[in-house]
Amino acid sequence: MAGPSKQTPDFGALISKTGLGGEVHQHAPDDGERLTTAQGVVIADNQNSLRAGAPGPTLMEDFALREKIFHFDHERIPERVVHARGYGAHGTFICTRALGDVTRAAPFATEGQETEVFVRFSTVAGSKGSPDLARDVRGFSVKFYTSEGNWDLVGNNIPVFFIQDAIKFPDLVHAVKPAPDRGFPQAQSAHDNFWDFISLTPEAMHMIMWQMSDRTIPRSFTTMEGFGVHTFRFVSAEGKSTFVKFHWKPRMGLQSVVWDEAVKSNGADPDRHRRDLWDAIERGDFPEWDLGVQMFDQDFADSFAFDVLDPTKLIPEEECPVELIGTLRLDRAVDNFFAETEQVAFCTANVIPGIDFSDDPLLQGRNFSYLDTQLKRLGGPNFTKLPVNQPRGCLVSNYQQDGHMQTEHRKGRINYEPNGWGEGPRAHPLEGYVSYKQQVTGDKVRLRPESFSDHYSQARQFYISQTASEQGHILAALAFELSKCTEPAIRERMVAHLMHIDTELAESAAEKLGMTDMPEPPPAAQPTQMGLKPSAALSIQSPSPDSFKGRVLGVLISDGFDGGLLMALKTAVKKEGGVVRIVAPKIGGAMCSSDNLHPVTDQLGGAPSVLFDAVAILPGEQSLSASPAAIDFLKDAHVHCKHIGASESAMDLIAACGLNSAQDDGMHRLSDPASAQAFVTACRTQRFWEREAAILP
Ligand code: HDD
């Protein structure tokens, strides 16, 4: 029998051929790595367990079998209690503006300074296997491996939160997660328990406006903003404190999808966001965000209309500008999802000299929770020794020892301090972390400050800062979510809260929910401040990104398509820094007009237009007007307000969809390179939102 090739040894095939006849030996490779047990013993046969006769019972003494299955049985660790589904990548933070006079934090010491980072994006409510495009808040966690230790900025893609005090967090999470009796719904807030809790929690109303907006259905991780949420402190070398709020601004611009698209994307590609990040890094199109800070002092805090320690409030950029101080670039995908993305352990209490906490009661509670949860999840106190969690730019030296899975092998007798042996690390009052010297007085009480009691004004401010289209999306989201509540009282309580935010919104929601009488608004601790000005920074749709960079044009072709037009589209998209995917009835390729077989990236049945940012339809003589998948492709692109480019040969498909090629300016005729260029330029705007008013009921 011929031996297997050295490049592609196929022992499985060999063994199955020989094993049936009772012959169980196999050919060993002459070189290359040997397969071993965890004890290092080379394994002779990885296809057959040790049996008493063949066939016959398996023997207990088969240590290779037992060890292999034992290890497999223990592969899983508890998923995160929230933010279970996430995706990480490595990168660099580059300081673009030194802040040495404001903070002694190492990453901001000098302009141009680089700090290694690991970033993990996540959804909140769904389990590890839930789809990426659930309507949900997204986590945005950044671990800075600084020369003075690890600093974790554990934020979200929304600048405010549902609750003001950490003591309410377990209830919030229980309410949104699957109900304990039935174990569903998964990765959704559209159910009774969530809205029951929310409608009894007025402080959540501002966050709810954000949650019902398209912020919770982002186009990708790379088009999300990020926020530290809480007010933190920068502390200078002299011990002076400046309050600070952190913002991440995506260089690709803020972009989201529409709800119907999110729902369909979850079926077509449940991994859409992680795939998008992976693909972007693999093709060298490294996603970037600017880090911005809002810095202010106690006088500003005292004069601001809300309490800066209240995590349900933001500070509008118009009142305190966001100053850009650095850039984050993600340029390395993980090598091993479990080792890095799963085992990374973030903690809000991981701060470095120059960064300190504020008295925000949510932040204070978080500082306890994160360390605690890692013990459960990662199994012991030595998770800081895992490579992804180890500090990089500095030494770690202390007397912490032993514990589960200790990997350090420290020598010598000294494991305490002070010691008279003159050995071992010592604390250093000048170089060490010193907490900001804040005066603290007061009675020990369980009391929410009065300054936290205005729950509706910023909810209204957010709502009036949205474009008409975005307001429509908020209304539709509320109607969708509340229509999933079976208990009418819950719907009524929610609509009653909306009365304090915007009466028109409340009335429209009531109408969409089929409510015959408007409920009375609940008593409010503070009346809504009607005079707050809209803030442009709160809208996603304005302004639009100024290029098609990082986005994907899906081009639908069929045999006989115009190859010249496709080339022109590819050239125009490449110039923008975008990506073209070619969709055709068969994955094997499509013949172009000059009889060349053109490669295809996606088969039409598996590539609905929800996976693309804009579409072009270039059929050849093979008409697509009778193809249900092609009709869905075009109809969906149209209803999701995408820019659509169409060649003359696409007219029968357009007619089959009941559309008209000239019905709006988002429909572009493709005939030559100039028209292809003009179409791609038009695609820079996120969508052709003007279409929405014409097509929505
Ligand atoms: Fe939290 C994870 C963000 C409030 C308790 N949280 C977690 C993650 C993010 C946030 C992004 C995922 C980290 C990762 O990628 O591994 N959490 C927030 C934000 C909050 C917030 C922005 C409010 C401003 N969290 C919050 C509160 C508590 C927690 C009030 C508890 C009192 N969060 C946790 C946790 C998690 C967590 C249970 C689960 C997994 C983990 O920590 O590592 O400790």
Provide structural commentary.
Keywords: Heme, Hydrogen peroxide, Iron, Metal-binding, Oxidoreductase, Peroxidase. Residues 1-31 are annotated as: Disordered. This is Catalase. Its EC number is 1.11.1.6. The chain is an alpha/beta fold and 697 residues long. Among the domains are: 86-157 and 216-385, Catalase core domain (Catalase HpII,  Chain A, domain 1, Beta Barrel), CATH 2.40.180.10; 552-695, 3-Layer(aba) Sandwich (Rossmann fold), CATH 3.40.50. It is 27% helix and 15% strand. The strands form 3 sheets. Strands 1, 2, 3, 4, 5, 6, 7, 8, 9 and 10 form a 10-stranded antiparallel sheet that branches. Helix 15 links the parallel strand 11 (552-557) and strand 12. It starts with 10 loop residues before the first helix and ends with a helix. Bound molecules: CIS-heme D hydroxychlorin gamma-spirolactone. CIS-heme D hydroxychlorin gamma-spirolactone (HDD) binds next to strand 2, strand 3, strand 4 and helix 10.
